Amino acid sequence: MKVSTPLTRGWTVRLDTTRRHPEQAPETLPVAPVAATVPGCVHTDLLTAGLIADPFLDRNETDVAWVGRADWTYSTELPRSDRDHECTDLVFDGLDTVAEIRLGDNVLGRTRNMHRSFRFDVTDALAAGPAPLTVAFTSAYAEAERVRTLLGDRPGAYAEPYQFVRKMACSFGWDWGPTLVTAGLWRQPRLEHWSTARLAEVRPEVTMDEDGTGIVTVHVSVQRSAGGSGRALTITVTVAGTEVSAELPSDTDELTLRAEVPGVERWWPRGYGEQHLYACTVTLTDDRAAPLEVWERSVGFRTVEVDTSADEHGSAFTLVVNGTPVFVRGVNWIPEDVFPSRVTPEDYRRRLEQAAAAGVDLVRVWGGGIYESEDFYGACDELGLLVWQDFPFACAAYPEEEPLRSEVEAEARENVVRLMPHPSLVLWNGNNENLWGFRDWDWEPALGGRSWGGGYYLDLLPRVVAETDPTRPYWAGSPWSGSRDLHPNDPRHGTAHSWEVWNRRDYAVYRDDVPRFVAEFGWQAPPAYATARRSISDEPLTPDSPGMLHHQKAEDGNGKLDRGLAHHFPVPTDFDTWHYLTQVNQARAVATGVEHWRSHWPLCAGVILWQLNDCWPVTSWAAIDGDGREKPLYHELKRLYADRLLTLQDRGGRIVLAAVNQSGEPWTCQARIRRVDAHDGTSAELHVPVQVAARSVAVIDLPEKVTVPAGSPREFLVADADGLRALHFPVPDHTFAYPVPEMTTQVTPQTGGARISVTAHTLVRDLLLQADRLHPDARTDRGLVTLLPGETAEFTVTGWNGHDAEALQTALRCVNAYAAVDPATDPVR
Predict the structure, then answer these.
(1) How far is CA 13 from the centre of its chain?
(2) Helices (DSSP H) in 336-400: which residue ranges?
(3) Which SS3 state, helix, strand or coil, does residue 495 take?
(4) What per-residue confidence (pLDDT) applies to 828?
(5) Distances 296 to 98, 104, 190, 199, 203 between C-alpha atoms, Å
(6) Nearest to residue 196, comparing CAs of 358, 122, 86, 270?
(7) Catalytic residues
(8) Cα separation of 737 and 721, whole Å?
């Protein structure tokens, strides 16, 4: 039976000054070896050894830039080969990135790809006894610059040469991430001891017949030892109690088996049904029925396709799971840590559970990151989170020649096979924004006829998916309109990215069109106050203090934040006001888009927010910041992504009530519509019946008596139904006559926290409890809430004992306090 021995102990790392001296290195270099953690990377090892400052704090990132320009050597000793087995392989599941592997004086191989595994036969080398193992990493910069010189320059969104090396692109920095170019053994290495034969590849295609029979077609490849070359083998597939076996003759190394499993339960995305998973095992035995290796995974039975049919509006992009069209409520996922080896299974689970709790049903693994670990996809399987998987290409023209092309194909084939057992994985996507970039970002003149990646996205990758995993759809890129004859980011076709909003225009512009599928959109906000305070020591802390600016990576990011605020609010006069209002603006911007697009289902078939998470403390588009604290946007997603959503929408200059029902049951209720004066109360009220079929939208016309005149500085519209609320204010906050807010609070201590009740005596717009201002460890269960006079909101807080009344006054904020118009000067009053 095959035996694996993890290689996680006894490693050291040292700076290799014999090859190159890194620029901008400190005068005193850490030349002596230091203890290394494997899996890990050089930055985390140096940090643990106290040799560099934490690059997540202040502007330390720039002080450690030299690390990514240096060469590093990891060393350990391998034990003597296991004499009970014929073969011993040294296996690396992740080397980051350009490495030479030596065992003793022998070079085993050289690697240049972070995204794939490598295997070396060390049977003879370890037969005589233990041997020293070194993995010498050359700076990814050096390799990328070498390839760039060899193949010619290519345009990209950033000056860094990330498109010239198969490495996590955002290691080189992004508009939300630091430039920390890593090196190291980022996934666990091991020794594998085996005899006769081993399972070289197991490729399960999981499908369903129309009668509900589950089908697992397993393609198996084996590698034989010299002693096993003439022996017959047996392969057995077991799924949910069904077992099939076949003999693998001695003259072949490949076999396909088909297991039919009657009466299986389907795997469904969350909100549509249960996530039924079944154990699937593939057992390899020799001619004496002795087990040689067992491969085990969980599989789920479901069908998936993308409806791209043409209609009078253009062409659709609708995900269909088990025959059911799905309105996607998604989030874009970036690497959870810029040092991905630090992300634990518990980290993945926590973040994905947060996504599910917010109503998310799809996670898009973005193309500037990595193929994630089994822990990520396994959690998605269990939580019912659909996965859209980008191949790792993002925002640049990529060369298609060697030495990159063969690496791209090898990594694609390996990762498609690795991930295909997961039922949560429903789409392979060729790249992020590269087809769009070639069309619109002036790449073509700069390329001068050189390759740019189109052959990957439109030929190589779809061919790999078709040959390797035909059970899933492939899409050439995001955005992509489905045809070379169409603009890649045409909102009438396929997938679209909406970045004119945020970059150049106010979020109200989201309402100007209805894309078929919005694969990226978003709005920035700073991290939680406690996160900013932990990571930035500026005194005073201001929006443009040095540390805050360093932790704002977007081009003119603060300028865009300020221009976005100017459409709605007076200019903030202090940091606390700026911080609160930018967080409000982020939540409102996303709400404007999601409510509009959801109200147009099925014409629009999905939205994927940019982005769920952060990889360090930073001002960004994330709903959860780099310290794991939820921004107000996160709590707003709970409302926006709930099965049932109530929204007031403009349809051709008239306000209508849209009731969105994504649940599987009809929705019947009464809606209460009120026209309200901010100072004098309700002036008109109406009760209307709401009847919405399952997975559909009802649009209800409202009579004139509850219509608020356009431009009214005092009146607004409120719709309530089944505990849901929709609001319509006809003018921006800075011209609305808000009353000075009046409210009372009551704090009730509870085990592990407190309950805070806030009762409004006036209109209170976008009340927010910033729990981390009570205590850095404090969390609350809700975000922005608007109260009418006499209404009460309750916040449950954990991590704060409720005894600091002064802190509570600082933590509670509302829009009225910053946008109120003096009623005495209001000409309407």
Answers:
(1) 31
(2) 345-357, 374-383
(3) strand
(4) 38
(5) 31, 35, 18, 12, 12
(6) 86
(7) 433
(8) 26
Which residues, 6+ apart, have CB-to-CB distance to 258 below 8 Å?
Answer: 215, 216, 217, 218, 244
Q: Are 98 and 196 in contact (CB under 8 A)?
A: no
pLDDT of residue 820: 61
Q: Could you tell me the two tokens for 43?
A: 């930055």
Beta strands in 171-265 (DSSP E): 172-174, 177-179, 184-185, 189-194, 197-208, 214-224, 233-239, 242-248, 254-261
318-321 sheet: strands from edge to edge = 304-307, 318-321, 324-326
In angstroms, the CA 608 to CA 637 distance is 11
Rg (CA), the chain: 29
Q: Answer left, alpha or beta for residue 790, where phi above 0 means left and psi between -120 and 50 means alpha.
A: left
- Cα(701)–Cα(651) distance, rounded to whole angstroms? 10
Q: Amino acid identity, residue 49? A: A
CA distance 755 to 98: 54
Kind of pairing between the strands at 87-92 and 189-194? antiparallel
Phi and psi at 500, nearest 5°, equal -60, -45
Which has the closest alpha carbon to 55: 154, 181, 148, 157? 181
Contact present, 713 and 826 (Cβ < 8 Å): yes
User: Six-digit token pair at 710?
Assistant: 């356009």
What DSSP element (H or E) covers 820? none
In this prediction, residue 667 carries a pLDDT of 98
Integer Cα distance of 333 and 373 in angstroms: 13
Residue spans of alpha helices (H) in 493-616: 500-503, 529-535, 546-550, 557-566, 575-598
Side-chain-side CA neighbours of 242 within 13 Å: the count stands at 17
Q: Collapse the DSSP code of 241 into the 3-class scheme (helix H, G, I; strand E, B; otherwise coil) and give the result.
A: coil
Is there a contact between 68 and 182 (Cβ–Cβ < 8 Å)? yes
Cβ–Cβ < 8 Å for 46, 54: no
Dihedral of the alpha carbons of 458, 460, 462, 468, in degrees to the nearest 10: 180
- The secondary element (H helix, E strand) that includes residue 499 is none
Task: Identify the H or E element spanning 419.
Answer: helix 405-419
Handedness of CA 46, 47, 50, 51 (dihedral sign): positive
pLDDT of 803 reads 84
Torsion of CA 685, 687, 693, 695, to 10 degrees: 30
Q: 713: which 2 tokens?
A: 């500085």
Three-state SS annotation for 38-98: CCCCHHHHHHHCCCCCCCCCCCHHHHCHHHHHCCEEEEEEECCCCCCCCEEEEEECCEECE
Report the chain's terminal Cα–Cα distance, integer Å: 86
What is the spatial distance between Cα 760 and Cα 615, in angstroms, rounded to a whole number? 38
Question: pTM here?
Answer: 0.96
Q: Show the tokens assigned to 661.
A: 């029902």
Asked if residue 577 lies in contact with residue 98, where contact means CB atoms within 8 angstroms, the answer is no
- Residue 409 parent element (H or E): helix 405-419
CA–CA separation, 720 and 715 (whole Å): 17
DSSP string, 424-480: TEEEEE--BSHHHHHHHSSHHHHHTT---SHHIIIIIHHHHHHHH-TTS-EES-BSB
Which residue in this structure is represented by tokens 């509870």?
750
Contact between residue 548 and residue 538 where contact means Cβ atoms under 8 Å apart: yes
Residue whose pair of structure tokens reads 């390759």 in the numeric block: 451
Mean pLDDT, contiguous 10-residue spans, the chain (829 residues)? 95 87 68 93 96 97 96 95 89 98 97 98 92 97 97 96 98 98 98 96 96 96 92 95 95 96 96 98 93 97 98 98 98 98 98 98 98 98 98 98 98 98 98 97 94 98 97 98 97 98 97 97 98 98 98 98 96 96 98 98 98 98 98 98 98 94 97 96 95 97 91 96 97 96 95 96 98 96 98 97 86 89 46
Q: State the Cα torsion 322-324-329-335 to the nearest 10°.
A: 20
Determine how many CB atoms are found less than 10 A away from the CB of residue 104: 16
Look up residue 390 and give its two tokens.
């980008």
Q: Identify which of 529, 407, 353, 488 has the alpha carbon closest to the alpha carbon of residue 98.
A: 407
